[in-house]
Amino acid sequence: MIATMAAGCGDGAGAAPKITTTARAGVAPVPPDKGAYFGAWVPEDGAGGPSPSQSPSESASATASPSGKDAGKPGMAPVVGFEQRLGRQLDIVQSYRGWKTEFPGGLEKSVAGGNRYLLLTWGGADTREIVQGKYDDLIARRARAVKALGKPVFLRWSRDMDKSSGRKRVHSAGDFTAAWKHLREIFEREKVDNVAWVWCPTARGFSGADAGSYYPGDDQVDWICADAEPGGDYDYRDLSEAVKLFMQWARGHHKPIMIAEFGVPKAYGPRRAEWLREAAKTLQDPQVKAVVYFNSDEQAANARDRRRAYSVTGDKHATSALRELATTPYFNPRNLPVTSGG
Predict the structure, then answer these.
(1) Which of 43, 205, 209, 333 has the fewest beta carbons closer than 10 A?
(2) Where do the domains of the chain lie, and which CATH numbers do they carry?
(3) pTM score > 0.85 for this model?
């Protein structure tokens, strides 16, 4: 079943096409009529924890045990703690599971059992082996497990497939699209209708790696996504520059956009708040229907690598700016309650 909606006029700068998805409305996640869902990746292992340079009061606030009915659910304490500092509940909580890892786990069940959407990021495998049927049983088991959750799920399979680091597994754009279609066929065979399929290369891949060639087609994709960190080789780079070519490409497709894993590097120091406020302007685009902040330092090579560390935890000014973004009406389409945060 195809859900169709027009992008809201006056919700942001620029024109956007009529938005369609293959997802079943009311069962799978569909775009909000106006604005964009706000979500985050909050590591369960504390990789996005407080900075060693923060003040004692900031440290106490960042590490205080979260409270509330969801805080005690499996995997939810870091999420609830982040929400309390943000001043609102998340629309989307991201989880990650490797290709052979059983899911849903505790976090996925906790998210699905509440009032948040689950963004399940599922690792990839050798695309040719997938098409050859080597993993059909595994895929079918995962499909049944997702169906059994009984709640809407964003499924982001084999993200960043355009990166050269994954070439041995992905092989080629043609191999990737064939594998994508094979997965969808198995999910359809298992009658899984609570999934919205999120196709997600890197935003950088549109400036030379031909990320668009990995696109399986409008009939195979519900949400077009990009991972959009500024990149560790820039001293400073606005989000608008990081997503520019991706957004130009996406204009040619009648799909809602998700900007996943965007984050402001700690290397930007006192300019982090400024970066986030400019990002809020960029993301208020009528085709952008979901944004997911990457509140983690796990991509950093070591503790001194601040160009790939994105957590705002313990950074008072960056947290305040992210709270401004998250509580802007555009990014709160469900009109969830807002508190002062802290």
Answers:
(1) 209
(2) 3-331 (3.20.20.80)
(3) yes
